Amino acid sequence: MTEPNRYRPATLAVHGGQVRSQHGETAEALFLTSGFVYDDAAQAEATFLGTAQHYQYSRFGNPTVAMFEERLAALEGAEACRATATGMAAVSAAMLAHLKAGDRVVASRALFGSCHWIVSTLLPKFGIETEFVDGRDLAAWQRALARPANAVLLESPSNPCLEVVDLRAVCDLAHKAGATVMVDNVFATPLLQRPLEFGADVVIYSATKHIDGQGRCLGGAILSSKAWIENTLQPFIRNTGPSLSPFNAWVLLKGLETLKLRIDAMCQGAAAVADFLAAQPGVTRVLYPSRKDHPQHALAMAQMSQGGTVVAFEVEGGKPAAFAVLDALRLIRVSNNLGDSKSLVTHPATTTHMRIGAEERAKLGISDGLVRLSVGLEDPADLTEDLGRALMAAKVARAAE
Q1: Which one of 164, 172, 190, 363 is CB 3.0 to 4.6 Å from 76, fit for a cystine?
Q2: Could you tell me the CATH number of the domain that includes residue 175?
Q3: Is 282 in contact with 321 (CB distance < 8 Å)?
């Protein structure tokens, strides 16, 4: 097994958590099994008592899944990790394992639509008080955390407008209020930002996005201290079953091997695309953290090593213009996924953030003209040519109205 502190991220992404069977395979072994056998009844009893180390059932743990968990933990700099079937399974498991009736949650308003639903709709059904704040406003965090809280949930950068939260300041406020800080780090990945280093307690991923990065499978992950994972999270996962399949864990392991290569190339492409869009007539706003015109550029670059793979931009003319742009694209395809090797574009107001309502979208800056672009591995020149043609088509469509 690789020693996590000895190697740099690119090496850990290839070798972290490696365990070979007696056959000495080069690639990680795929343990496609639901259960495991014991030498005798006494070993089975000891395994269930916890006095013997032996796999029991793949819902509780599996060797292939464990390799993925250990590799991702090494990349994140976390003590422990548990994988889940999807990113939303990771968010809901982390929250529900930690909280109980009577607890209080403070969350950044800028959350992915399903995460927003968990905080606004699901948690209150279980008697959990929730409060949203503008994640960019430190004074809002101070007011919300002036009284006790049990958990803080935030995204940074956020989906889709790439808002940035001051992680260190919010973690300090949250801890004084007694809260455990949970950060959805999917846009940054562990290669661009490591929230634990800024004081976060739990880091959450949709591994479906950059970690797989090739549109093949679903997965999620939760990382934290060994004590929190084993004592708080593991009983919930064991008994409710949001477990990752061994096959998907194997695919995600293969994805981790190329993660740094893909992220570096995608960040370079995203930066070029953002610069191109900012110079185009009809584009009224471009949001990309490493651009100096991003409202929180300095904070973003203090927390992240690069600007990320996602660009948000607003086109003049609202929803009809945005739809005209999306429909005119030929290389970039319309999809609500992100972090893929193929560039993907979506209209958040009618897809990922449709169900939070127009009033909430307005508070988040998600206008009808806003477009979210996940930049892939194509040549940036081909992407900008495609975008240029699409923007011109939208202009012609507006003129014809």
Answers
A1: 190
A2: 3.40.640.10
A3: yes
Our count of domains for the chain comes to 2
332-336 CB contacts, 8 Å cutoff, 24+ apart: 332/373, 332/383, 332/386, 332/387, 332/390
Residue 27 exposed, middle or buried by CB count within 10 Å (0-12, 13-18, 19+): exposed
Which of residues 235, 257, 279 is at a domain's end? 257
The last residue of one of the domains, among 257, 283, 312, is 257
Supply the pTM of this predicted model: 0.95
Strand, coil or helix: what is 132? strand
Helices (H), 4-160: 9-15, 41-49, 63-76, 87-98, 113-117, 123-125, 138-144
Using alpha carbons, select from 281, 284, 290, 330 the residue that is nearest to residue 310. 290
40-46 contacts, C-beta under 8 A, 24 or more apart: none
Residue type, 241: G
Q: Which of 230, 208, 246, 242 is nearest to 84 (CA)?
A: 242
Judged on CB neighbours under 10 Å (0-12, 13-18, 19+), 230 is middle
* Interval 189-235: pLDDT, tens: 999 999 999 999 999 999 999 999 999 999 999 999 999 999 999 99
3-state secondary structure at position 335: coil
Report in angstroms the alpha-carbon separations of 22 from 34, 71, 230.
20, 20, 28
* Separation of alpha carbons 352 and 184, rounded Å: 16
Residue 346, number of CB atoms within 10 A of its CB: 22
Whether the pLDDT of residue 2 is over 80: the answer is no
- The pLDDT, as a whole number, for residue 1 is 46
Length of the chain counted residue by residue: 401
pLDDT tens digits along 81-105: 999 999 999 999 999 999 999 999 9
